[in-house]
Amino acid sequence: MAGGKCLALIAHDQKKDDMAAFARANRDILSRWKIVATGTTGGRVLDAAPDLDVVRLKSGPLGGDQQIGALISTGEVDALIFFVDPLTPMPHDVDVKALMRLAIVYDIPMALNHATAIKLLPTLEA
């Protein structure tokens, strides 16, 4: 992914409606960014805000979390918004933890819930 700032969006199943609503409500800021998203999340974001530049990767459990992790490790993702559902067990929990670890190791801004994402947005405008 060449050129421009890139934001990764991911949402667990029970948080996909929240991510779609977040994208719709914040489309002005998000429209200034290239967006990569896991498969279903990306589809829901595009349904809510079809004007956004969203590249859909694989579904999280099928490798999408790892694809985004690879983009973080190569410096192609500048920030991550990941609406995590802490109350639902996930069979790909190891992938989720690896993704978060990469965001921390590479020191990129990461929001894990709506409240933090709202606080992160003003920094994305700069």
What's the structural blueprint in terms of helices and strands?
Elements: E1 6-11, H1 16-25, H2 27-30, E2 34-37, H3 39-48, E3 54-56, H4 64-73, E4 79-83, H5 93-105, E5 110-111, H6 114-125
Parallel strand pairs: 1-2, 1-4, 2-3, 4-5
Helix pairs in contact: 1-3, 4-5
Provide a quick synopsis of the model.
One of its GO terms (cellular component) is cytosol. With 126 residues, the chain is α/β, with parallel strands linked by helices. The chain has a single domain, classed as Rossmann fold (3-Layer(aba) Sandwich).
Unreliable residue stretches = none
- CATH architecture verdict: 3-Layer(aba) Sandwich
Q: In DSSP terms, counting alpha (H) and pi (I) runs of 4 or more, how many helices?
A: 6
Helicity range? 40-55%
InterPro entries: Methylgl_synth, Methylglyoxal_synth_AS, MGS-like_dom, MGS-like_dom_sf
Domain MGS-like: 1-126
GO molecular function: methylglyoxal synthase activity
Pfam families: MGS
Describe the structure.
The protein has helices at residues 16-25, 27-30, 39-48, 64-73, 93-105, 114-125, and strands spanning 6-11, 34-37, 54-56, 79-83, 110-111. It is of the alpha/beta class and 126 residues long. It has one domain (6-124): Rossmann fold (3-Layer(aba) Sandwich). Helix 5 links the parallel strand 4 and strand 5 (110-111). The model has no long low-confidence stretch (mean pLDDT 93).
Features:
126 residues; alpha/beta; Rossmann fold; 6 helices; 5 strands; MGS-like_dom_sf; methylglyoxal synthase activity; Methylglyoxal_synth_AS
